[in-house]
Design goal:
Layout (H helix, E strand, L loop, with lengths): L1 E6 L2 E4 L4 E9 L4 E9 L6 E7 L4 E3 L7 E6 L4 E6 L8 E9 L5 E4 L3 E6 L1
Parallel strand pairs: 2-11
Antiparallel strand pairs: 1-3, 3-8, 4-5, 4-9, 5-6, 7-8, 9-10, 9-11
Length: 118
C-alpha cells in the first residue's frame, strides 16, 4: 500500500498563488510518475500536471506558464506551485502516484480544496 498525504490549498484571490505538496509513503518500490489532478463540481477529473520518473513533465494547456510541478525524489514528495490563479482553477486537487514495475497501480490522495475568488 502507498499513502499520499497532501497539504496546501485554501482560499485565494484571483492573481494570487498557492503551493500544494504531496508526500508518498508505504510500500514504494518504484514510482513511475507523480502528479496532480483536479475535479470541479459537475466536471470530470482532469490532469493538471505530472512529472515522470525521468524528470519530464506534462501540463494541462490551461495551466501552462502559470503552474510548475517539481519533485524531491529523496523524499518522494511532489510540489505544485500555482501562480496567477484564476477562478476557473477552483476545484478539489488530488495527488496521484503511479507505482510498480510489472504491475502498475494508481494511488490517490484524499484531495485538497483550492478556491479562487474573483
Amino acid at each position: 500500500q502507498v499513502q499520499l498525504v497532501e497539504s496546501g490549498g485554501g482560499l485565494v484571490q484571483a492573481g494570487g498563488s498557492l503551493r500544494l505538496s504531496c508526500a508518498a509513503s508505504g510500500s514504494i518500490f518504484r514510482i513511475n510518475s507523480m502528479g496532480w489532478y483536479r475535479q470541479a463540481p459537475g466536471k470530470q477529473r482532469e490532469l493538471v500536471a505530472r512529472i515522470i520518473s525521468g524528470g519530464s513533465t506534462n501540463y494541462a494547456d490551461s495551466v501552462k506558464g502559470r503552474f510548475t510541478i517539481s519533485r524531491d525524489n529523496a523524499k518522494n514528495t511532489v510540489l505544485l506551485q500555482m501562480n496567477s490563479l484564476k477562478p476557473e482553477d477552483t476545484a478539489v486537487y488530488y495527488c496521484n502516484a503511479n507505482v510498480g514495475v510489472v504491475s502498475k497501480y494508481d494511488y490517490w490522495g484524499q484531495g485538497t480544496q483550492v478556491t479562487v475568488s474573483s
